[in-house]
Amino acid sequence: MSVHKEIRKVTTHTLQEMKYSGQKISMLTAYDYSMARILDASGIEVLLVGDSASNVMAGHETTLPITLDQMIYHASSVIRAVKRALVVVDLPFGSYQGNTKAALSSAIRIMKQAEAHAVKLEGGAEVVESVKRILSAGIPVMGHLGLTPQSIYKFGTYEVRAKEEAEAKKLKQDALLLQEAGCFALVLEKVPAQLAGEVARSLQIPVIGIGAGNQVDGQVLVTHDMLGITFEFKPRFLRRYLDLHTSITEAIQQYISDIKSGDFPNTHEQY
Fold first, then answer.
1. Cα distance between the two ends of the chain
2. Is the dihedral of CA 103, 108, 114, 116 positive or negative?
């Protein structure tokens, strides 16, 4: 008789336990069913249905154009593939800023229609009322500070954030504010490693970094970047684990060549 091993789902509580016990958290982006299946089966703890889909899936220059409907489409594709990972979905630009009622309704749509596990939104003091309102409905919220790509036109650059004392001080205050509001975790993007470490040590909730050094509680990268499907994007914080751009190109060129030469399909590949 085979004993069916039960899969232990990753929850917000699991991440909290990992922080307390000093285990690092792994997180990657996912936007579609096939890739999410592979990522989940590989043992990743958190999958982020990022608004970076705007860049890597739709070819936009920024994350701003992606809509709530599109995010729900990507999120529901990912959810159908996942058996174990915690799936967090970005609230897209314009779906929560400056309007707590809209923020709550956006978050509810993501949870109901995509059956997601949690939402993520960018900003500190400016969005804390929206965070509280979403949490009041029992929806887990992940915060995001540092470089917040939805505010790219305000920053005017994708450079490292919080290098100056004033911005670093605000970042620390915002991090505490988000924790007090009830966020279960926080992403810190492109901030100095020392500052990120200070924030991680000062908070009870897990802090996940991207370009924020190794003193935080976990790391996140865009899957298409770390697998080398995208190749123009080369920030210092990105480690490429594969060069899929080259491998895929070579495979496709071989396929074309086999068709042209009459080699494909051969006698074993036909009926």
1. 39
2. positive
Cβ-based neighbours of 126, under 8 Å, separated by 6 or more: 97
Measured CA to CA, the distance from residue 187 to residue 213 in angstroms comes to: 12
pLDDT at 84 (0 to 100): 98
> What is the CATH architecture of 12-240?
Alpha-Beta Barrel (3.20)
Closest C-alpha among 176, 193, 218 to residue 86? 218
Q: How remote is the C-alpha of 132 from its chain's centroid?
A: 21
| Number of CB atoms found within 10 A of residue 184's CB | 21
Return the active site residues. 189
- Report pLDDT digits (tens) over 200-240: 999 999 999 999 999 999 999 999 999 999 988 899 999 99
| Beta-carbon count within 10 A of 88 CB | 28
β-pairing, 46-49 with 185-189? unpaired
- Computed from CA positions of residues 181, 182, 183, 186, in that sequence, does the dihedral angle turn out positive or negative? positive
Residue 92 to residue 70: CA distance in whole angstroms: 9
DSSP 64: T
Round to whole Å and give the CA distance between 52 and 42.
22
> How many alpha carbons fall within 13 Å on the CB side of residue 131?
25
Residues of the chain with CATH 3.20.20.60: 12-240
